[in-house]
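My main concern about presentation is that the manuscript never shows what a single data entry looks like. For the editor and my fellow referees, an illustration may be useful. For illustration, here is how one protein appears when written out as sequence plus structure tokens:

***
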Amino acid sequence: MAHSVRYIKSRISHFKKHVFIWAVLIFFLFFPGNLSGTLSEIDSLKGLLSITNNDSLLGEYYIRIGLLTDEADPELSIEYTKKSLDCFTRAGFTLGRARALNSLGYNYWLMGRYTEAIDYYTEALSLYESLNQQSGIARVANNLGAIYWGLNNYNKALEYYQKSLEIRKALDDKPGISIVLNNIGMVYQEWRLFDQAIDYHNQAVEIAEALDNQEAMAYSYYNMGLCFEARNDTDKALEYYRTAYEEYRKAGKTGGATSLVLRGMGDLYFHQKEHDEALYYYRKALNDALHESNIFRATSARLSLAKTFFALNERDSARMYSNQVLESAKTYSYDRFLRDIYYLLADMESEEGKHENALKYYKMAATIDDSIFNKEKISRFTELQIQYNLEKKERENELLRKDNEIQVLRIRRERVIRYSFMTGTLLILIALGVLYRQKSDLKRLNQEMKTEILERKAAEARIASLLDEKEILLKEVHHRIKNSLNTVRSLLTLQARSLTDPAAKAALKDAGTRVQSISLLYEKLYRSENVQAHSTEKYFSSLVKDIIHVFPNREQVTIETNIEDFMLNVKILSTLGIIITELITNAMKYGFSEDRKGRISVRLLRQDKKISLVLANNGIGLPEDFSLERTGGFGLQLVSMLVKQLDGTLNIHSNDETQ
């Protein structure tokens, strides 16, 4: 009996303690003003710290101070929030721990320290899930999505955003829905699907306007500005940026958010070569970022300032900001900033004639560029392929099982009918009963088949969506290949400038021309709806013009093209492009002197299942004793080898003109 009384008293004491804790929490949430006379809320909270030894209350005081200082001084906020975490841990208050971990993740995100932010957010999410605290799960999932977006892992970001959106719709959390819709729109922006992105941002604006939420409205307007900037609609983009800036100011959000908007306006003026205006907005962006101690935003603004001063030929200022960006990028592993600053430094060194240093920076930038390429997209592509194959196999097995069931039922019905005629009235009645049951089964199976057909149609629609996503990934790969080829060509050009041997320079120049022909193909594939094949007329016409353009005697030579237009596989197109490049290059270099005029014709025709390519010129012909087997030139040897790869034949004639 005494034990029972003690137990009841302990439970009552425990209940009172937690009721008091929640009362204090509600007071801080709804009455955040001054607590005693003229003292600020922070001073009042610090005063309360000295008059209690209850860990749960101490945790609430510390976390409140951390929230009040997070944007002004993230380092100080982290210090107080970690004390809060310690107090909640000692008190065994799981919800308090989850809140403190989420606040720590937010502070590290503000400082651009993404690795630490992910660790704290992930632990917070685990605690919220153990408590089944849906609003907390939605909040942390959205925060993790923002982190992965900043790390260019857009598939992972979208996964967390959709998880947050689903919960917030279930909770009818309209402010939260507006924020997540904006974030999903930003993912589609990065994928350059601007129609889908603008649709999500418009949905977010409608909710924010209904709630009169200026900060959410500003967020939406800024993202819509980004979409219009990407579409080269400068006036519309500037209009949305200015509206976003004003809404942030009205909401009292001067810091990382306004820094981002100001940098967007600066970028617009920079692209229009209005560098003084660009400097004005970039400097304001830097000041706002430093006001909030937002290292990521400050680094971004400094990079823009460095580029602008370089464009203005103010090298000292450009070097100063470049060094600051380099230091921050290395310290906090900002790969994109590090790549961009290496490219800028390479341009600076090249302008100053320091080609060896320029080449070094270009190589460093290219290495980082390769590491940035999103491995998650490649794994996602593989995952989609596997998922498609599994679902297809599963549907086939399910349909086969249904067919077998129907066949078994038909056989059984026929057997019952046959036996019924051999029996008496009693057996006939039994058979009729069985038939009735069979009919019910068939009706059920028919209904299941209808349902299966509907499910199959839905699955086919999903497969079509997966194929569309696969197409997007293929375009991304082609875009990446094109950029890599341009980098290779730039490196070859830089290397050629640093050489004095004419033969070596010519070899590097020829190699650059070959790389250019392949790069042109991938550029056209990236802009094309069909990434497996391309138009012969569009590709070869552009290629011939680009090749001729690099020769100083191009004005002396007339180009005639007769190219039949049809779709051709990318591999064959690439090979034929190299062959045309080599033959035109040889004709321009050896067939026409600087003062010799003439004509080069290119004909491409399709005859049945074969393709005929004829290149002719009336320049200086081949020697009378010319033989392809004895020629020492690399170009014609390469052409001969590529023709064999295509299972073709190479014929050379030299009479009035060389063909």
Summary: The chain is about 75% helix and 5% strand. Residues 425-497 form the longest helix (73 residues).
